[in-house]
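Onboarding guide, step 5: your first structure request.
Type a short instruction followed by the sequence, for example:

Predict the 3D structure of this protein.
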Amino acid sequence: MLPYGRQSISEDDIQAVVDVLRGDWLTTGPAVAAFEARLGEVAGGHRAITATSGTAALHMAYGAAGVTRGDTVISTPMTFIATTAMASVLGANIVFADVEEDTALIDPDAVDALIDERTKVIAAVDYAGHPADYDRLSAAAARVDALVLDDAAHSIGSTYKGRPVGDLADLTTFSFFPTKNLTTGEGGALVAKDPLIAQRAHEFHFIGLVRDADRFAVTTEGAWHQEVHEFGFNYRLDDIACALGLSQLARLDTFRRRRAEITRRYDAALAGIDGVRTPIQRDDVELIRHLYPVRILDQRRREVFDRMRADGIGVQVNYMPVYWHPVYADAGYRRGMCPNAEAFYAEELSLPIHPELTDDQVDQVVESLVRALR
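The system replies with structure tokens like these:
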């Protein structure tokens, strides 16, 4: 089966991990610090805190933002459930804003219609690697003193109006799962513009430990002392994973170029093919395309999916609207809330795209798709 996504591991990546295994630090060591520093540079010069997963990074973001019971988080239904689940577990009320018909990104007009004084966070998702409209989302958030979160699980390496992902929102979370734009195995990170929020996130992911003597409530202990002011979690990413991540970051431009080549090849091959609608790219965006999501028209998505899978092509569907999941349906969310998102889901099919995909394999995918549409 030709996978829709997979990691690209070089000999340098392997050597980076081996070097850590032969060293003194397996966790909380220099590779973590180096990876976080480099991530911060890539993300616009802001502090980065690594995490055990993209989901953990989202939990850190909402926790550091002070999201709690009674707060509202406005988000998109066109995402993996972790985007909203980590706010839900903190007691937030999730309000789903519909997506733009053409991009499947959260629609700023829909956000404008939903935002109110209870809104704590607007959580956007850079679906398929394409950044959302952060100028308009930030303007909406500013009206009610809310924060903007960019779930950038798909988009590290993309830019919006010349600014890198990581510099577009108050909080940005990354995922480094093997199918993403770069990998640490499992892993993720949070980038925060506000240093105080960044420090809260750091402590949240470090079991809540405070090590700054100037902030100690207990002042009678020795140099060993550390204390907890707010409960946290152990979401620390280790040096082994961070060594791989640091090596992968050095290859990010190569990954971007190859994903762009594959995108252009798909665009050209599928232009004018009846029954298929290809993804768009806005003029103010440079993206590293994590997914290549076509739309299969005429209610044929399931048929085409099954035929291509039988043909050995690992197509995928990304994603079922979040509020269709039973955990939200049981809480009273109903189908029909976001018609654009539901229409997109009914047609979406992700074609294989990853740096190891060859031109011949891209052609094989196209041929399989064309056969499935006959």
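Each response can be followed by summary notes, for example: Residues 317 and 341 are 13 Å apart (CA to CA).
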